[in-house]
Automatic annotation (TrEMBL):
The keyword Cytoplasm does not apply. The keyword rRNA-binding does not apply. PANTHER family: 30S RIBOSOMAL PROTEIN (PTHR33231). SUPFAM superfamilies: Ribosome binding protein Y (YfiA homologue) (SSF69754). This is Ribosome hibernation promoting factor. GO terms for biological process: negative regulation of translational elongation. Associates exclusively with 100S ribosomes, which are dimers of 70S ribosomes. One of its GO terms (cellular component) is cytosolic small ribosomal subunit. Belongs to the HPF/YfiA ribosome-associated protein family. Short HPF subfamily. GO terms for molecular function: ribosomal small subunit binding. Keywords: Translation regulation. The lineage of its organism: Bacteria, Pseudomonadati, Pseudomonadota, Betaproteobacteria, Burkholderiales. InterPro entries: HPF/YfiA_ribosome-assoc (IPR050574), RHF-like (IPR036567), RHF/RaiA (IPR003489).
Length: 118
């Protein structure tokens, strides 16, 4: 699994990098078939002061790419919200993959009656 953490108008400190890595352990615990993770942390110059910190993640799995973003006043709160959203989407994808959307033939009731030969 490749992990890329980058900052836009922000320098990514080792503390922020460790915080993101520790939070991503929860995702890897639920679903281990992750190929690539790209995290972008941004400080925007918006006129509204309460939504300046932005965290985005692009997670590639086999067969699907998940994109999640979160805005907050605090960068750590934005990361927490981002991981919560990502966790819900990964769990939803995992349940879809496991269910396969149909029942197996061996679990269907026996309604087939062979035709009588004349």
């Amino acid at each position: 699994m490749n992990l890329t953490i980058s900052g836009h108008h922000l320098e990514v400190t080792p503390a922020i990098r460790d915080y993101v890595q520790n939070k991503l352990e929860r995702i890897k615990r639920h679903f281990d078939q992750v190929i690539d993770i790209a995290v972008i942390l941004t400080v925007d110059n918006l006129t509204e002061k309460e939504k300046r910190q932005k965290a985005e993640i692009n997670l590639r799995m086999s067969g699907k790419t998940v994109y999640v973003e979160s805005l907050s006043q605090d960068l750590y709160a934005a990361i927490d919200t981002l991981i919560d959203k990502l966790d819900r989407q990964v769990m939803k994808y995992k349940s879809k993959v496991q269910e396969h959307g149909h029942d197996a033939i061996k679990h269907l009731p026996d309604t087939f009656e062979p035709a009588a030969t004349a």
